[in-house]
Amino acid sequence: MGHRALVAYRRPDQRYDIRYSHWGGERVALGEQITAETPLADGSIDPEMVGHAVSRTRILSAYLDPCTYERLVLVAPGEDYRTTTYRVCWLEWTVSHGGCRGGIVAVDTLAVDERVRIWFQATKTTLADIVEMGALSRRAARTYLEARVCEEEDGTAYTYGEGGVDGGEYASPPDRRPEGEARLSDREDVRDRW
């Protein structure tokens, strides 16, 4: 499966050329490997462009699928290949056709990245349990999670996909449980079968 990352190189016109790294999402150190001598991090970044002359906003709305990527690295070749690395956070609970919400949080060291990763997974897992018990709707949980990412981690929330690409409004998935999916409290207790 890989640990995918998008690597966006800023051009003189302030737009970005985007490349893909299959294992670049695994570690923060990818940004440190990008230099003037090794702009593709010694082969860790695919030389083929995924996007050409893309605005910074459009990187998020049209390229950075939060279900697919773990990391975004912005590279400034004109500033001695200075990099800014972000952890990508998927703010939804189900995959939907159309737009979905994601968040990015700047992580400049391995310690910060690990803290953000663990914090996000723990917070999202706890919220998923609360949703499963029926105490909170998915929409309310996503809104809360998004607020925590933005306020506590100084992150940026964005819409990827249909709603974000053409500037249209994001339509949150319906605030109901998919048909046939029972709440945890409605399911037969597995212990009763032993």
Summarize the structure.
The protein is α+β, with helices and mostly antiparallel strands and 194 residues long.
What report would you give on this structure?
The protein is an alpha+beta fold and 194 residues long. It has one domain. It has helices spanning 30-33, 56-63, 110-132, 138-152, 162-165, and strands at residues 5-10, 16-21, 49-54, 71-76, 82-90, 100-106, 156-160. A seven-stranded mixed beta sheet has the order 3-2-1-4-5-6-7, with helices on both faces. α3 (110-132) packs antiparallel against α4. The radius of gyration is 19 Å and the shape is globular. The model is unreliable at 163-170 and 183-194 (pLDDT under 50). InterPro entries: DUF6735. Residues 158-194 are annotated as: Disordered. Residues 174-194 have a biased composition (Basic and acidic residues).
Label this structure with key terms.
7 strands; disordered C terminus; alpha+beta; 7-stranded mixed β-sheet; 194 residues; 23% strand
Tell me the Rg in angstroms.
19 Å
Shape: globular
In total, how many domains does the architecture comprise?
A: 1
Strand order of the largest sheet: 3-2-1-4-5-6-7
Strand content: 15-25%
Low-confidence stretches: 163-170, 183-194
Tell me the series of helices and strands, N- to C-terminal.
EEHEHEEEHHEH
What is the count of β-strands? 7
| Structural class by sheet pairing and helices | alpha+beta
Helix content class: 25-40%
Amino- and carboxy-terminal Cα gap: 36 Å
Topology:
Layout: E1 5-10, E2 16-21, H1 30-33, E3 49-54, H2 56-63, E4 71-76, E5 82-90, E6 100-106, H3 110-132, H4 138-152, E7 156-160, H5 162-165
Parallel strand pairs: 1-4
Antiparallel strand pairs: 1-2, 2-3, 4-5, 5-6, 6-7
Region (Disordered): 158-194
Biased composition (Basic and acidic residues): 174-194
